[in-house]
Every structure is written in C-alpha cells, then in structure tokens.
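Problem 12. The chain below contains 145 residues. Write out its predicted structure in token notation.
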Amino acid sequence: MNDEIYCALSGVMANDEDMISEIPQGWIRVTVEKQYINPQWAAIQMVKRGLVESTLLQLPEEHRDMQRMGIEIQVAAQFHGYEEQFEQFITVEEVLHISNPAKSEDVRASWDDLVEMLGIEEDFLGENLVEDQEDDGEDSEVAED
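Solution.
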C-alpha cells in the first residue's frame, strides 16, 4: 500500500497497483494555495514610508511635493539590497487527493458537491465514467429542422 497518498474524503489509501504516475489512476489531486503578505517585507515598507515622511518634514512645506519623488528614490535605493532578501508574499500550499469517484458512491457524491460549490464546469472525470450520461445521449443531439 502507498501510505503517502490517501483520499481526503474517505481516508482510503492508494494501492500500489494504481500508481502509474504521480497520482493513482482515476484519482484527483487538488492543490490549494493561499498567499500572505510577508511581515518582514511589510515592515521594510513601513520603515521606508516613515523615513520618506520624516525627511519631507524637514523641508519647507512648499517644497515637499517637488522633493517627494527624489526622496522616495533615495530611500528605495538605500533599502534595495536588504529588501531583495525577502519575498513580498508567503505562499502556503496544501495538496490533497481524492480517490476515484467512479469506485465509490459516497466519494462521487462528495466530489459532485465540491465541484458544484466551487463552480467547476469542466468534467474532470470524463464522460466514460459517468453512467447517467450514456443513457441521455439523445438529449445532446441537435434536432434538425
């Protein structure tokens, strides 16, 4: 048994016989990603803004607008090397697997609910795995006048 891949819906473990590539035949891999602002990157941005604003406060008010861009460039140049060490976003990724929905009514029902909730229109399972579509074949034909 492959103890690294299991179904997130049913808990069923993948069989070694089904492993023909990275995921078992007929299984579905779902990847979920979420991005967060990197707190270190955000802190650098706050320090840069603070330095620009404090530098501008040292100038006469009538010159501040004219000098803002130059000061922003100078501050950006000062922090460039340090800032390059940090990504703007931290990405968290979760990879889940769903066993072949054609082999379990419970998994199929859960998969159908998930597809409907997420608004996925493409049939990832393929028409040959959906028994109901074989009987309804005449509905998909276009009537000729």
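Discussion. The two ends are 57 Å apart (CA to CA). Students who got a different answer should revisit the alignment rule from Section 12.3.
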